[in-house]
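Notes from hallway chat w/ T.B., transcribed later so I don't forget. T.B. wanted the structure written out for a chain they're using in a teaching module, and asked if we could keep both sequence and structure tokens in one place. Agreed to drop them here.
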Amino acid sequence: MNLRLTEECRDFIEHYPWPGNVRQLENVLTRATSLLEGKEIEVSHLQLPAYTREHGYLEEEFEGTLDAAVKNFEADLLRKLYPAYPSTRQLAKKLGLSHTAIANKLREYDINKKTVKI
């Protein structure tokens, strides 16, 4: 079976950031070809999160609330920064908050030397 990409699809593939690298590209094209009913792969056949330079990846199937999303982001950020800034004062200075606010957030998300590798 001879399949081809439309010009628009080829342009889209060339400019998509591909965080999963070649493996993600292969998976997306394999899925598109397995569901294809014709011989041309179009952008609409590619099942990928939308991406814009201003907003990054946009999850169409986002569930939850803004508050929950912000808390998840905050907890992830604190877990990533904690090893480099393992005291409340250091982390507070880095993030521009009081050490009390950081201590409360670390306690809320159970981030400490026992739960995060330093």
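Follow-up for T.B.: The mean pLDDT is 86. Might be a good example for the class.
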